[in-house]
Structures are given as C-alpha cells and as structure tokens.
Specification:
heterodimer, A: alpha/beta, B: alpha/beta, 8-stranded mixed beta sheet, 3-stranded antiparallel beta sheet, 6 helices, globular
C-alpha cells in the first residue's frame, strides 16, 4: 500500500479551527485538539471561552503553586480567570447553551455522517463514561465545528454515509476540519471547501465514505 | 429558627431513610459536600438513589458511598473517573441513569421552581429520547424531561450567614444551587458561617429560604487534574 498522506498535524488542524472564530463571540471548546485552538486565535479577534461547569472567560493553566481547587474547567483541569470572567451555576450555564447564546462549539468526534449526525460519546461494548455536556452543546449552540482525524487507526473513514455509533446529536454538525481538509455538511452530502497542504480533492474523496457533493 | 448544627451527623439526624432520593451538588470533586457524604457513610442508610453530575473518585466524595454499597442508583452525566463505580455498574449491582449534563441541571432547577416537566432539544434522535414524549414547537422537535424532586439535598457553599444566605466561590458553584433547590429539605456545609448582616444582600448567590440546616467545617478540596504552565523566569 502506498504511503498514507497525512496532511495537517494536530496543531495545524487547531490553527485552521481558530480561523472559524468570530470577533466578540462566546465559544465552547471540547477536549482533545480543540483545547489547542486558543494558541492560534488570529490577531484582532477576541473571543470569550465558556467552560460549561459554570464560567465565561476561561484563562490559561495556572503557574505551578497557583492552582485553586475551586477553579477548574469542564475537563476538571485547574485553570485561571481573565478580567471579564463571570461565574454561574450549572443550570444557568446550560441555559445559555440551550438558549443559543453560545455562538459556536468546536468539538472532537468519533464519527460524523453526511446528514450532520455526530457520534462522540459511546462505543457499545466498551466502557461508557457518559455524555457529559456534549448532547446539550451540539443541540444548543449556534454552530458546531468538528475537528478530528479523517480516518480511524485502521485507515477507515470517520466521515460516513450514516453513523454506526450511538448518536450525540442528529443533524447538528455544520463543518468538519480533518487532517486532510475542511468540509461542510450541505444538502445531500459533504462539500470540500479546502484541502490540507499536499492533499488533493481526490485524496479526500478516496479517504471518505460519505457522499461528496460537487 | 436555628439552622446551624454542630456537625454533619447532627445536621442529618432524622432526615435519612433507606431508599430515598438525594440530590448532591458538585462537579467532579469541585464544590462537593465532602462532610455530609462522610456522615451519610457513617449513618449506614442504604438503597439510595443519588442525582449528582459525577460519582466522585475511588475513596473520595460519592466514591465512599459506592464502596460501602449504600447507593442503588446514580443519575449522572459523566462517571468515568471511578473504577469501583464501573465495576459495580458492569456487574449489575448498581443502576445508572445517564442524563445530558444540562438536562440534569435543568431537571433539578425545574423541580425547585415547581415545574414538573419541560421540553428540550437536547438528546433528540439519540438513546436519551427513547420512551420520552416528543413534541413539535415552531417546526422543531423537542423531548419532555421531568423535574427531579429530591427527598434531600446535600450541597456545599463557601460562606453563609446564620440565616443560610450563601455565596459560592468560582467554579465550585456548579450544581450546588439547582441541587439545593430541588430537595424537600436542604442541608448545606460551608467553609465559614459569618454573622447575619455581614454579607452584602445584593451579592447572595442562594437565598437562605433554600437552606434548612447549616454546618461549618474543614474541607480537603482535592484537585482531580492538576494542570499548570511554567512560570516565566523573573
């Protein structure tokens, strides 16, 4: 088998995802590659990060010795506040998510299909830890951008005609950023918007099970 | 009426019965009612259903009540940090009802506000929606979720005055206010009870009407994921 083309690395995918951020908006970032996105926020763009355990205005990790057990993010990691930070309870936090006040969520995924269905919380037969806030986020926020590898460790497409894993949300994904490029969920399938460095549209088509439009 | 009790055990005296539904505050190990959990372990009450976002870790927080097999069922959104939980769940000893995190918080808040059910888009088209009423509003499908009316709420705040007016600190607020609101009776533990009149009435996070019994005590406040960045050279 020929060398599998890699395209973007994790940081490049995060940097591309950061281009999605609009100035002045409130955004929720999931675990994994999305946590790298703040390192690449474009010049002149200011966003406020929400942590769904009850905080707007999430800052970076604290300096060693400054950790505060009362100040953690949704991944239970110690973090810091910024000048415009506000705290609130979990019902209020998910009220702003469910109420559509959070402009965008950038999340990881196990599978996305051509109807915009998303699976990222459970694999049957494996240890199930729970959906946490993922179902609330994808159902509530203005726009869902998924950042994930294009294929799984067996080389199989994670962009499918139909998700095989239990869903997190139905018809919720707007855009997918993978190591091979950027695709939008449109009527009838996925549309290629951009190819990663050294990747062609044919490379993407060859690595994708979902219907590619155009 | 005096709300202040000398210890967690005294504050829970007469409130615990086998098979009851307890709503607990906290997110991960942040803002959990450590002292009240310890007192419930000591009480030996059993067959509990506990509504709490997480289930603690092994040997800390709700993990202690799992070790002693006092919990029959958990209503949670994420339970991944607790090996004993997983062992009991996979062997069928423990029931688990997964709730999306915001749905869990809203089910508590709704009950506390006298609302027995509400409609949400969260979980439509997923396993969460199975068996639930579906209804269309303005062309979009929603599912009905029911309020969680708990027998007892156990919560933790930072400070409270003698009348139970409470304030929380940073992200330790989390599920504590909605959990406090949804119980028939609420017991709160705080780091400091201050004289009535010393908190700014405009800055109360949870009014004392929701707090029936109050204790002060020392908290371990364990950190689950200690993450730091290097301090820049001076």
């Amino acid at each position: 088998m020929a060398d599998v083309k890699k395209g973007w690395d994790r940081n490049q995918m995060a940097a591309r995802a950061a281009q999605e951020l609009e100035d002045g908006t409130y955004v929720n970032l999931g675990i994994g590659i999305p946590t790298l996105v703040p390192n690449f926020i474009p010049e002149g763009v200011t966003v406020t990060l929400q942590s769904e355990n009850g905080m707007l205005g999430m800052g970076p990790f604290p300096y060693e010795g400054d950790e505060d057990p009362d100040l953690i993010n949704a991944g239970k990691q110690t973090i810091t506040e910024v000048p415009n930070t506000a705290y609130f309870d979990s019902a209020t936090s998910f009220g702003m998510i469910r109420g559509g006040k959070i402009a965008m969520a950038i999340l990881g995924a196990m599978e996305v299909d051509e109807k915009g269905d998303l699976a990222n919380w459970m694999i049957p037969g494996k240890l199930v830890k729970g959906m946490g806030g993922a179902m609330d986020l994808v159902a509530g926020v203005g726009r869902v951008v998924v950042v994930m590898d294009h294929t799984n460790k067996h080389g199989e497409s994670k962009l499918l005609k139909e998700c095989t894993l239990p869903l997190t949300g139905q018809g919720v994904v707007d855009r997918v950023i993978t190591n091979l490029g950027v695709l939008d969920v449109v009527e009838g399938g996925l549309k290629i918007l951009e190819c990663a460095d050294g990747i062609t549209e044919d490379d993407i088509k060859a690595a994708t099970e979902a219907t590619i439009i155009g | 009426m005096k709300k202040i009790y000398g210890s967690a055990s005294e504050a829970l005296d007469g409130l615990l019965t086998d098979g009851m539904l307890i709503a607990a505050g906290g997110f991960g190990l942040c803002g959990i009612p450590e002292l009240l959990i310890d007192a419930i372990v000591e009480s030996g009450v059993k067959d509990l259903t506990v509504a709490s976002n997480n289930a603690g870790v092994d040997a800390f927080g709700l993990g202690k009540l799992l070790e002693t097999r006092q919990i029959k069922k958990m209503m949670s959104s994420y339970v991944g940090e607790n090996a004993e939980f997983m062992r009991q769940y996979l062997s069928g000893e423990l029931e688990l009802e997964f709730n999306p995190q915001g749905t869990l918080a809203e089910r508590m808040r709704a009950a506390g506000h006298g609302i027995p059910g509400f409609y949400t888009k969260t979980g439509v088209g997923t396993v969460i929606a199975e068996g639930k009423e579906h209804k269309e509003f303005n062309g979009e499908t929603y599912i009905m979720e029911e309020g969680i009316f708990a027998d007892l709420s156990i919560v933790k705040a930072w400070k409270a005055d003698e009348s139970g007016n409470a304030i929380f600190r940073k992200t330790a607020r989390n599920f504590n206010p909605p959990a406090a609101m949804c119980g028939k009776i609420c017991v709160m533990e705080v780091e400091e009870i201050v004289p009535t009149g010393s908190l700014d009435p405009d800055c109360i996070h949870l009014p004392g009407i929701y707090v029936h019994r109050l204790i002060q005590g020392e908290h371990e406040k364990r950190i689950e994921q200690r993450t730091t960045r290097p301090r820049p050279a001076a």
